Fold these 3 entries.
Entry 1:
Amino acid sequence: MFWNNGITRRNEHRLFLLVTVMLSAMILPSFTIHPSLPNIRLDELLLFSIFGLNVLFFIRNRFRFREKEKEELRLQKKELKLIIIIFALLTISYFISNFYGVYIKKAGYYGLRDVMELVTFFKYFLVITLVLSIDIKRAEFDFLSKAFLSGIIFLLLFGWGQHLNPLNLNTWLSPYFNQQHWEHLITGNPARVLGTFDNPNFFGIFTVIALAYFTVRYFFGEDGDKFPWKLLILIGLVIKLEFLTISRTALFGIALLFTVLSIWSFLYHKRNKKVIIKILALFLLTLLLFLTASADFFYRLHEGLDFSTSTSFQGHMDRWGAAIGSIWESPVFGWGTQKYVMTTLVDNEYALYARRYGFVGLAIYLSLFLLPWVQGLKNIRRKAGELGRGVPFDQPTQLIAAYIAVLPSIFVFNFLAGIFYNLQLMTIFAICMGLVYNSLREKPDLINDSAVKS
């Protein structure tokens, strides 16, 4: 709401802030303020600082919006209302479950780590509403796309650097991004690339998110009579980067993403020759990269599929069993956060969230992800009815389609790990949510470019 006041009034300032937040989440590590306090990220510092300045400007203006600001809020009204409702419900669920857990279930005391849960909610609210507040037209979209591509190129180079370890990079640079786990994750058996993330699985699912946008552009963008070779090569490089993480969950996420988009494009483009060629090219590229993967990749893949000996699978089952047992003891409101009492290592975000907030809270959690998905799907179906099938997607529709296509992969990932409580990864995905809401908002000067260039 308050992004429309003070120093972020101009659209360029908001866009610059968004790009800074996005690149920070993609390539920068967290840093320590004090040993007794949680680490903080640059994007968090920027978001909360500028929000605080906006509140001060709002107070200085005697809690009144200017006419221009009122008009901006009017254009965002429908989507902003949905966002506020969802985060209000998350907050209410937080207070009810913690009160119930502490005072009714006597589960333990309430500490600083539990308060940080609210800070997490609020950060995501700020990210989504920041994206919503920007009037994204052709120029803004091009700038945002180039910034995202620059971050991807950095991660490609850095990921291959971790894999090849030139000039002993993994000794003098990689620890800067993750001092606690880098040695085990990079030089382990098998060695796994983790990029700038604190876990190769999180880096792997980030590549799936990136692939969603590239592959939507590949299938649904306007290319004329030319085949998008450059885009196919970029998709191949990102797939290979995921293979270097050796994340089995992300590998399945890519397979699910490509299946969804291939079927969708095949039906949408009325089974024409061009889309069949694109599907075959993507399939052959993926198959080639898969068959030429390293021996370590196949070793880890085989180890994960052998449930009788897989330590990963057995560890997941043990943690799920403990979590499910506590869920059934308090299924409606859960136990509250209780981070000092109950372990946060569940390896299943649905079970973790249900244990904290019960099935009521879990329903709200799912609504956070599903609401933009449902709204976006309705928008695409409406446009398809108006324009007919086979028409290339304009820029807003591509953003919506990418979110629709990638959410099933995210839901699978949350079943085996989780995105919501990883501040780095969820910040990027909150931007994706914000882009969907932004694409749905009313835009008086929007130019629907059906030929958005990559």
Note: The CA atoms of residues 189 and 296 lie 8 Å apart.
Entry 2:
Amino acid sequence: MTTTSNIEMPGSWPEFQVLAKNCPSRPVFEVITGRWSALTLLVLGEDPKRFSEIRREVDGINEKALAQSLRALERDGFVERHASDGYPSRVEYNLTGLGVSTTALLRGLVEHLQDRMPEVLEAQADYNRRHPDA
């Protein structure tokens, strides 16, 4: 086990420490945990999708944000882009093996959050009562 800033990371490689500012894993972590990328991965976890299908399912995302997310996810090896031959070209996006395993972890986090939302809402209400000007 390696330790960084008092956080133990079981099985992590000593040369990759996401908490270190110059570690190459940090920008990848930022991509994965970014609002649009995480939601895009969750949508692609079901099956390959076209750009417009992803955009419809990720409520609130605009074309620019989706294009940037897909490009970053493709660059980091989480998503593959497939363009068919012919006219018009049909472009689909799907998860790679790395994307599938990462999305499974994201799904676990989402399920945990959804299950614990009553506690979160209670904590928020309590905080707002104690800090009415916040």
Note: The domain at 34-130 is CATH 1.10.10.10 (Arc Repressor Mutant, subunit A).
Entry 3:
Amino acid sequence: MQLWQSTSRFVLSVVFGTALAHSAAVENKPHHITFSDSAHSKELNIGAQLLDSVVVTNLTNAKTHYDNSMSVRFFANGKFTDAFQFDARVKINTDYTNRYINFNYYNPDEGLPYNKQSENKRTWDLFGANVSYDLKPAKLLAGFDFIEWGPARRNHVILRGERNFYRPWQDSSSRIPDAAPTPYFGYQFTLGPIEYTQYAAKIYEKKNFGKYFHAHRLNLNLPKDITFGISETALYGSTIEPAGSNPNPDSDSTEREFEWAYAIPFIPFVFQEHLQGDQDNISLAFDLSVKTIPNWEFYGELMWDDMKSLTSMFDDSWWGNKWAATLGVARDNIVLGPTTLGWMFEYTRIEPWVYTHHKGRAYTYASYAQSLGSDLGPNSQELHTEVSATYEFLKATLFLGAVAKDTAFGGHINDIHTPESAMDKKFLNEKTTLRYKELGFNLAVTPWDWFSFRCSYTRFFGDYEGYRAYAVGSVQW
């Protein structure tokens, strides 16, 4: 079918398939319509998805609440040339709840913005987009999107990207649970098994106040299917606390502009920061994935936040010895007759004060009131294991987890350590730590390419008692 005639001849075709969609609720990419020229050197794929979900939550000392969310999503991706590729998606949500919804004034410290329509109804939208241009061996990157680093299957401690998990202490009708995208530009260099990636981004803490984020990563693809990564991040911004409210001597109100030196490739941030006055939030991270044994993966992530040396990880006498780690093991593709099984186990530990900064919220590891790293936040840990079984269009997952979260000072990302604060740290103080276990299952059903359904049930035991039931259905094309 000829659509128009210019220097190229374009044809229209309908393509069906499944892949990973940018949705935490449903893992099926919509059907899409493809426009391309006869040589397929230019291509545009468009699609849409309609979802409707319901959640029932009943926890100790809280009213049973019901939440309904209807969402319309649109997708577009393709290429202008083989080297110039793009991807974009948007979702528009309408939420109903039997809880009261607070007003939202579009301040980033309130979380993602929404429009309050009534006491029990709100609307909101979210989008992501990115482009890449491959110049070989360099690739240019730009977007308003999510950045995810590390091999962890559940809790990234470095950059979690779009991942979100239900945490009872974060449950609120006045908080959008989705992660926040960020505008960025960057580049990637590839030389054989070596890959270097760098991003410069703007993140959000308060309207009209600048806050900036830089990250670079060296990835080594080693023999025996081993991948090792080392990365750094840098954070800084204009002070948002009132003048004189923070007693730390280097926290006077300042206005920060974008530091172009951080955007130069191959310069270690820890050295660059010293030349710029030793005033920013710098972290160093390592990650490792070992897949030497077929269908097995052993992995780990380690983030150092202001650490002085490796041995200081075990020194609790100084609050600034901040680190976070995730260790995991997984077994995939266990074939049992017509069924394929999978299993994983993961442990995450985040020390007190990780992701925070003594100069205030302009330097915290957060955007739109959400951690860029694990959403567990500082002073927490989680043990999580799950077993999944896939049979034709059915996938069932059984999971078990144990979570501990300290609510004391140093356990929230916005806490500010001052000269008057204790100089030591206490991991998971018994008196102030909330502990609970969760046991549940997920069931995903995709009988046809155009229809998907997923439900889950989680039972909580411990300091949080009760259950959470969730169901979502979607049609896509």
Note: The longest strand covers residues 43-59.
